[in-house]
């Protein structure tokens, strides 16, 4: 079993600015087959935006996703992990904060994202969640 976040994270996360429109994030997620993007302000991690954030905070309000900036829909209270922390630490943090994805930050900059699916694959490749996580994205 991998011991650190670095072993299981998705490296090089897509990062957009707080001023980028929500639509740009949605397109990037679609094109990359991912569900979360880190949001930057002044070269530093500001937040994270997920596909669910876009639906609940923009689409459901019938907002213009081409005009609404990411600053208005991203989650700003960031819980992150260091790439050298243990997988067990990440599981505990996700459980305590009720989150499914954690930015991985090293020296103040995002270097990856670790998801609950990544942790499921690291723990038990035969589990139902691991199987779902390994499946190709829906198109």
Walk me through what this model shows:
The chain is α+β, with helices and mostly antiparallel strands. It has a single domain (5-134), classed as CBS-domain (Roll). It has 6 helices and 6 strands. The strands form 2 sheets. A 3-stranded antiparallel sheet has the order 1-6-5. It starts with a helix and ends in a 5-residue tail after the last helix. Mean pLDDT is 88; it is low at 127-135.
CATH architecture: Roll
* H/I helix tally: 6
Oligomeric nature of the chains: single chain
DSSP helix fraction:
25-40%
**Strand fraction band?**
15-25%
The CATH superfamily is CBS-domain
Give the spatial strand order of the biggest sheet: 1-6-5
Low-confidence stretches: 127-135
CATH topology: CBS-domain
Most strands sheet = 3 strands, antiparallel
Please give the number of β-strands: 6
Global shape: globular
CATH class value:
Alpha Beta
Round the Cα radius of gyration to an integer and report it.
15 Å
């Amino acid at each position: 079993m991998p011991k650190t976040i670095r072993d299981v994270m998705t490296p090089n996360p897509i990062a957009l600015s707080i001023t980028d429109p929500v639509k740009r994030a949605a397109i990037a997620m679609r094109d990359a087959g991912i569900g979360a993007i880190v949001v930057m302000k002044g070269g530093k991690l500001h937040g994270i935006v997920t596909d669910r954030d876009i639906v609940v905070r923009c689409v459901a309000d019938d907002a213009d996703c081409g005009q609404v900036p990411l600053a208005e829909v991203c989650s700003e209270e960031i819980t992150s992990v260091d790439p050298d922390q243990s997988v067990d630490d990440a599981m505990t943090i996700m459980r305590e904060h009720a989150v499914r994805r954690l930015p991985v930050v090293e020296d103040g900059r995002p270097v990856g994202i670790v998801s609950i699916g990544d942790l499921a694959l690291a723990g038990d490749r035969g589990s139902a969640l691991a199987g779902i996580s390994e499946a190709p994205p829906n198109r």
